[in-house]
Amino acid sequence: MSWFILFIAGILEAGWLVGIQKPESFSKILYATFAVFSMALSLILFSMALKGIPISHAYLVWLTVGAPSISIINNYFLINHFQSTNYPDFCRCCWFDVC
After folding, report:
1. What is the spatial distance between Cα 20 and Cα 33, in angstroms, rounded to a whole number?
2. Is 46 in a helix, a strand, or coil?
3. In 1-99, alpha helices (H)
4. Is 26 exposed, middle or buried (0-12, 13-18, 19+ CB in 10 A)?
5. What tens digit of pLDDT does each residue of 83-92 get?
6. Contact by Cβ (8 Å): 16, 35
7. How far does CA 67 lie from the centroid of its chain?
8. Residues with Cβ < 8 Å from 75, sequence gap 6 or more?
9. How many domains does the chain have?
10. What is the spatial distance between Cα 7 and Cα 63, in angstroms, rounded to a whole number?
11. How far is Cα 3 from Cα 16, in angstroms, rounded to an integer?
């Protein structure tokens, strides 16, 4: 169960980073609220997962889930659609997080 909680925390990490990117000087309060909510929930879930997983493993998995999630959210939903020219960069991002 700790691993599932950690996976959700990693996805929420991506959510708050995207939420910070979108509010445009906090003029769009919905995005800013989403960012704060995602940040708080991500850290709460991360601390809950630490009860069953060593911190060195948990932090690595948290980042490894978060970084590709940010890339996927940016490419599919926000900036541009995923193109074949972006694929090597996406693989490189995932590879360096794992190593």
Report:
1. 9
2. helix
3. 2-21, 29-49, 55-73, 87-98
4. exposed
5. 555 556 556 5
6. yes
7. 6
8. 81, 82, 86, 90
9. 1
10. 10
11. 20
Max Cα–Cα distance, the chain, nearest Å: 41
Residue 25 DSSP SS3: coil
- The candidate with the shortest Cα–Cα distance to 1, out of 73, 75, 41, 53, is 53
User: In whole numbers, what is the pLDDT of the chain averaged over residues?
Assistant: 78
Domain range for residue 21? 2-98
pTM beyond 0.85, yes or no: no
Rounded Cα gap, residues 64 and 46, in angstroms: 13
| Cα radius of gyration rounded to whole Å, the chain | 14
- Cα gap 46→48, rounded to integer Å: 5
